[in-house]
Backbone:
């Protein structure tokens, strides 16, 4: 089995596009949630969201003019995060390059919803209006789920497996676990893993109608995403992309790459939609098994996990998540690891959330800090037992190990254990 | 500049985002869209849509299938502009 390390990162997040901006925002606890006049105009209950602010110069650094023209936001976020990740790992990149295929490199890049923007704003109006012939030739590539992996694979010339996974809000973390396993078992030297979710009012609408998004907080956007709070009122839709370059330790060392972290373990489970689980809820036993499997594979004891980047969406499931992980760890409350919720700063980026939050987790491991989980001054009584471990102010603490958890519709779970690299 | 020259220059400008032009290749009326500029069938669809929008014409499938060179396109645009303006 190969040891697997992380040698590159890239991010497009509501509170920072690019690693430098994102890390600064994390360290300072800066929120990327903003009021959206468009959501108000459309009578949404939740009129705030986390939408990355991307400009043409950024896009031009990642994509050719024709790629920009023939893509939607899901693809553009993916391209921007992936190109940053690839160069961050020490590889050359320019848009439209025709360097030879990288036969030992794969791509696992997921998306939760995918080409919603293309479907709703172009395909449906034109096709339903009898103007099929007016559809651009790139319509198929913009609506296929694998548009993100296909785009990224072409950008870097990946020649091993190039695939898109989709498992709702567990997608991003699942992509990292898939990539980790692929490399661990020797199918590739490196894999660019990640996930992307494009901004779309129609995607947000799917959750607004379920009454699971934040209500009553439209006048206070930066206070609207409130994981772990007694006044949490639902999640705030978010969008963006995260990318990680995973690589065999041997490959990383042979090219003298900087190593951010090592992946020690990962697990993906489903609760079978039994035992309290359903299409939209988790079976706690499935979550426990996922957490335990990932930690067991890491070879660490639960008390050796220093930090948890939780799924923690600001719904009533936050308390259940903490209780379930506490049960899986089997530790007394005072020995529970530090925990924070990146979603308090960026909202819930759906399929991309796990990927962006894996990037956040590694930046904290590498940078020796923990970002504040904002908007939980009024902790939910259900998590009071671990109050000292909930990071509510910027913390100068250098975790050696971290667990990232993600859960999604379909009762699916994904967990990954990162550690500072040590030889 | 004659009308034909204007249309040709405008058409060449229209196809720029969709072509891969090898270094040193000059585009003129005899330039073959597929063989010289590597326009594939998907890109041809987009070029046709852009051309329709730019010149205010409608190109049917039979005419589109006969397009080979830049000169063919210019002939088609000039012919359709005159015919469809008269409709």
Residues:
């Amino acid at each position: 089995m190969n040891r697997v390390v992380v040698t590159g990162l890239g991010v497009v997040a509501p509170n920072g596009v690019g690693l430098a901006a994102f890390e600064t925002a994390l360290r300072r606890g800066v929120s990327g949630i903003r009021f959206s006049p468009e959501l108000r105009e459309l009578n949404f209950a939740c009129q705030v969201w986390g939408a990355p602010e991307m400009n043409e110069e950024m896009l031009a650094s990642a994509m050719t003019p024709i790629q920009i023209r023939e893509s939607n936001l899901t693809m553009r976020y993916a391209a921007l995060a992936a190109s940053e990740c690839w160069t961050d790992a020490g590889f050359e990149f320019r848009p439209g390059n025709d360097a030879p295929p990288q036969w030992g490199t794969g791509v696992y890049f997921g998306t939760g919803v995918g080409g919603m923007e293309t479907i709703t704003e172009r395909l449906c109006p034109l096709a339903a209006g009898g103007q099929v012939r007016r559809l651009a030739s790139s319509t198929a590539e913009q609506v296929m789920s694998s548009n993100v992996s296909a785009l990224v694979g072409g950008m870097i010339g990946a020649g091993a497996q190039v695939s898109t996974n989709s498992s709702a809000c567990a997608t991003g973390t699942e992509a990292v676990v898939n990539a980790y396993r692929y490399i661990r078992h020797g199918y590739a030297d490196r894999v660019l893993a990640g996930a992307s979710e494009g901004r779309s009012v129609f995607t947000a609408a799917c959750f607004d109608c379920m009454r699971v998004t934040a209500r009553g907080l439209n006048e206070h956007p930066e206070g609207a995403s409130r994981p772990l709070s007694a006044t949490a009122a639902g999640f705030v839709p978010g969008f963006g992309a995260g990318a990680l370059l995973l690589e065999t330790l041997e490959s990383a060392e042979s090219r003298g790459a900087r190593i951010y972290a090592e992946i020690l373990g990962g697990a993906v489970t489903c609760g079978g939609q039994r035992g309290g689980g359903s299409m939209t809820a988790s079976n706690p036993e499935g979550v426990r098994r996922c957490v335990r499997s990932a930690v067991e594979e890491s070879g660490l004891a639960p008390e050796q996990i220093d930090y948890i980047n939780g799924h923690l969406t600001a719904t009533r499931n936050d308390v259940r998540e903490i209780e379930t992980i506490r049960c899986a760890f089997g530790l007394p409350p005072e020995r529970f690891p530090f925990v924070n919720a990146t979603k308090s700063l960026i909202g819930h980026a759906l399929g991309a959330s796990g990927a962006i939050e894996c990037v956040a987790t590694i930046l904290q491991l590498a940078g020796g800090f923990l970002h504040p989980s904002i908007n939980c001054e009024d902790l939910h009584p259900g998590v009071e037992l671990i109050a000292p471990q909930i990071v509510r102010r910027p913390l100068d603490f250098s975790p050696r190990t971290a667990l990232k958890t993600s859960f999604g519709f379909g009762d699916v779970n994904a967990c990954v254990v990162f550690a500072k690299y040590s030889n | 500049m004659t009308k034909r020259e204007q249309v040709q220059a405008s058409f060449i400008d229209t196809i720029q985002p969709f072509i891969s032009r090898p270094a040193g290749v000059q585009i003129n009326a005899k330039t073959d869209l597929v063989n010289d500029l590597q326009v594939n069938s998907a890109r041809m669809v987009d070029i046709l849509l852009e051309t329709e929008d730019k010149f205010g014409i409608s190109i049917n499938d039979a005419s589109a299938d006969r397009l080979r060179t830049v000169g063919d396109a210019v002939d088609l645009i000039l012919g359709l502009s005159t015919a469809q303006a008269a409709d």
Residues 4-261 of chain A form a domain with the Peroxisomal Thiolase; Chain A, domain 1 fold (CATH 3.40.47.10).
